[in-house]
Write a structure and sequence with these properties.
- The chain is of the alpha+beta class and about 200 residues long.
- The chain has helices at about 5-30, 30-45, 95-100, 100-105, 130-150, 175-185; strands at about 50-55, 60-70, 80-85, 115, 125, 150, 160-170, 190-195.
- It folds into 3 domains: about 10-40, no CATH class; about 45-110, 2-Layer Sandwich (Phosphorylase Kinase, domain 1), CATH 3.30.200.210; about 115-199, no CATH class.
- The chain is about 40% helix and about 25% strand.
- The mean pLDDT is about 85.
Length: about 200
């Protein structure tokens, strides 16, 4: 965008901005807050509020999801608004630009909502059920562990290692989930274990 801005127009714009911020600093900003507080109940009336965790990074900010449609009545619930959770200790209601754009991610037409596989020699992905996907993961993991598990090293010391499979954990989880994940992965003998927060 090519815009010609004279010195006089620049000073006029800067002066208006300075006056506006000065009025806000003097306490006149409460009018805007009161106006927004009066409108908010109408915007989110008849919606269901659900607390969740942002999925983007390892900060694990709290978010509030507002949806319309009652699952109890057989309706499909649709998320209509996403905002930061003011009661969450991590972000206290704020969101980064990616977190603020979560609604666009939820509604994206390109978002995958079911597992897909590409069979050997095929040039396209096929949709499969969640049960089939989990069964395939478990079957492949068991086959790999049976073929490559090392119970003892060359000196006869018990090591119980499985080095041919790795595990990438989520960082936006609760401490309890992270502890359970760690215990399951280590008890299987997996050594290659990392967290999304470092990626």
């Amino acid at each position: 965008m090519n815009m010609d801005l004279s010195r006089r127009a620049f000073l006029r714009t800067a002066g208006a901005g300075l006056a506006g911020t000065s009025l806000g600093a003097l306490g006149f900003g409460e009018v805007e807050e009161a106006h927004a507080a009066a409108i908010r109940p109408f915007k989110l009336a008849a919606t269901t509020e659900t607390r969740n965790t942002c999925t983007y990074c390892s900060v694990a900010c709290g978010i509030l999801l507002y949806s319309k449609g009652s699952l109890a009545k057989g309706e499909k619930a649709e998320i209509i608004h996403v905002e930061g959770d003011p009661d969450h200790p991590t972000n206290r209601g704020t969101l980064c630009p990616k977190g603020a754009a979560l609604l666009d991610m939820v509604r994206a037409e390109t978002r995958l909502q079911s597992p897909r596989i590409r069979k050997a020699g095929s040039d396209k992905f096929e949709r499969i059920s969640w049960d089939e996907a989990l069964d395939r993961v478990v079957r492949h993991m068991k086959a790999d562990r049976d073929a490559n598990f090392v119970a003892k090293n060359k000196d006869g010391v018990t090591v119980n290692r499985w080095t041919t499979t790795g595990f990438l954990a989520a960082s936006a989880t609760t401490n309890e989930t992270a502890f359970a994940t760690y215990k399951v992965v280590r008890s299987a003998g997996i050594l290659v274990f990392d967290n999304q927060a470092r990626v």
